[in-house]
């Protein structure tokens, strides 16, 4: 059974040639050299007209020659669960080629008893992991790669730590890579979030300061500090649970990682309480020099 590219044609271009050209243009503009020591990225998941350019700053770091498996950690926008869920399909389709699921790893994860199955309707309604797939298909074109999609529910701090410990061993294998999906601040009355510190000037500058504070804390790799930040500001970071799981992974793996944010953008600049925006940020986690 395959998961169709359900958001193609709406959230991103369904024409393979046009989509490839668009992604290539963004990747070349981001243009860092590929990093053989990169083990993970954090990247946004909005429609490509909003966040596609920002996402390139994450995916441009991937060296496809060194990686054979990509774990996807994405938040659940429509389906409520207190656990993590695994797809029932065997392949994720994209306009740029199909990405097979690593069923061997899925069996390992299922054996822990910590994961539930994700219905196909839930799988195809969710966009958080799908928006990473065309980039992965493009970057790994001509290379053999499998994916391990994991839908991350509304986890408690204890559950985030549990899943972090469970997944930590996979970071230590240099053939594995993690793609963590998250947008940052969703600001405006339509999001029920209008936090504003006037000392920063215009609203959009206050939003940027709020996000940059969270990004600096994520860069420390401390899941407790990130949790404290979320509790203090209640920032509407929709991938907070995938990020927290990843931070817990970095604490419990044997590989020392350094997280660095590379790009930050906003869908628009809010100047009045009638405005709204969504923030996007891209980061890479590399093996730290000893």
Automatic annotation (TrEMBL):
InterPro entries: MEMO1_fam (IPR002737). Coiled coil: none annotated. It holds the Pfam family Memo. It comes from the Eukaryota. PANTHER family: PROTEIN MEMO1. Belongs to the MEMO1 family. HAMAP family: MEMO1 (MF_00055). This is Protein MEMO1.
């Amino acid at each position: 059974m395959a998961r169709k590219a359900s958001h193609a044609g709406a959230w991103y271009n369904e024409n393979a040639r046009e989509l490839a050209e668009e992604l290539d243009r963004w990747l070349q503009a981001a243009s860092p050299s590929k990093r053989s020591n990169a083990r993970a990225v954090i990247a946004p998941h909005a429609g490509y007209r909003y966040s596609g350019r920002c996402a390139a700053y994450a995916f441009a770091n991937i060296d496809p020659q060194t990686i054979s498996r990509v774990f996807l950690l994405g938040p659940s926008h429509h389906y409520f669960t207190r656990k993590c869920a695994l797809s029932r399909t065997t392949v994720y389709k994209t306009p740029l080629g199909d990405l097979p699921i690593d069923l061997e790893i899925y069996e390992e994860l299922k054996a822990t008893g910590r994961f539930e199955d994700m219905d196909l309707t839930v799988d195809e309604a969710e966009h958080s992991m799908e928006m990473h797939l065309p980039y992965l298909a493009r970057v790994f074109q001509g290379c053999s790669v499998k994916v391990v999609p994991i839908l991350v529910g509304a986890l408690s701090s204890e559950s985030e730590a549990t899943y972090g410990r469970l997944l930590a061993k996979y970071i230590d294998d240099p053939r594995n890579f993690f793609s963590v999906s998250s947008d940052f601040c969703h600001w405006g009355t339509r999001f029920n979030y209008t936090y504003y510190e006037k000392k920063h000037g215009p609203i959009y500058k206050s939003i940027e300061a709020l996000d940059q504070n969270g990004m600096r804390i994520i860069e420390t790799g401390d899941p407790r500090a990130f949790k404290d930040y979320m509790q203090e500001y209640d920032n509407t970071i929709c991938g907070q649970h995938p990020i927290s799981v990843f931070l817990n992974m970095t604490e419990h793996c044997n590989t020392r990682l350094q997280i660095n944010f590379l790009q930050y953008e906003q869908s628009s600049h809010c100047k009045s309480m009638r405005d709204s925006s969504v923030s996007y940020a891209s980061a890479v986690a590399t093996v730290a020099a000893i």
